[in-house]
Amino acid sequence: MDKDKNKPLELLKEVNNRFVTACIFHREQRDLFCFLAMNGFEEWHNFQYVSESREQLLVKKFIIEHYVVAPQDEIPESANVLAPLIGTKRRTKLKSDQRWSIVKQSWESYLRWEKDTLAVYSSVAKELFDFGDIVAYNFISEIVGDVNEEIAEVTNTLLDMIGYDWDLSQISAVQDTIAEMRIFMLRELYKNY
Ligand SMILES: [Fe+2]
């Protein structure tokens, strides 16, 4: 009985902990593209890191105010992005086919990560609805909408890169435009704070 009563709190804790890992995921992706000297993708993930860090704090605030407890974050050692892709390689020693493969794998893993995240949050939203916690359901539904938007952006960018046939010179040529857009989005985020 008690366990069932705590179900919405347990679901929200699951969302909070996924957000913690999401922030580490974007930070590692940001570091990866900094390493590859691709400023557009670096700023992309920098924006997501900042934006999702803020959202995670809002999730935590919701938990504290709605369930009157402050659970500790479960912080993973890493999001497993950097280590498998670059290990201890030096940028100066990277061959162009290695660079190409790292960019492709990282974007494919990004789409996978967001799709898995959507599945987790959607299932949490459904369970909250079934449980009857409509306030929490509405809160998580907004987050589900944000993840859907991010998936659309990632898919569009992936389609662009497939359109370039993953040609690194074309991908490098759009980096400044992407960086400009993401820096603008970051400034807007703070403006509306
Ligand atoms: Fe994300």
Key traits:
single chain, about 190 residues, mainly alpha, 8 helices, about 0% strand, binds fe (ii) ion
Please give the number of β-strands: 0
Domain module count: 1
By oligomeric state, this entry counts as single chain
Query: Which stretches of 5+ consecutive residues score pLDDT under 50?
Result: none
Task: Tell me briefly what this model is.
This protein is 81% helix and 0% strand. With 193 residues, the protein is an all-alpha fold.
Account of the protein in words:
The structure is a single chain. The chain is mainly alpha-helical and 193 residues long. The protein has a single domain (2-191), classed as Ferritin (Up-down Bundle), CATH 1.20.1260.10. 81% of the residues lie in helices and 0% in strands. The protein is built from eight helices and no strands. The protein has helices spanning 2-5, 7-35, 39-67, 82-86, 96-131, 134-163, 168-173, 175-191. Helix 2 (7-35) packs antiparallel against helix 3, helix 2 (7-35) packs antiparallel against helix 5 (96-131) and helix 5 packs antiparallel against helix 6 (134-163). The longest helix has 36 residues, at 96-131. The N and C termini lie far apart (41 Å). The model has no long low-confidence stretch (mean pLDDT 94). Bound molecules: fe (ii) ion.
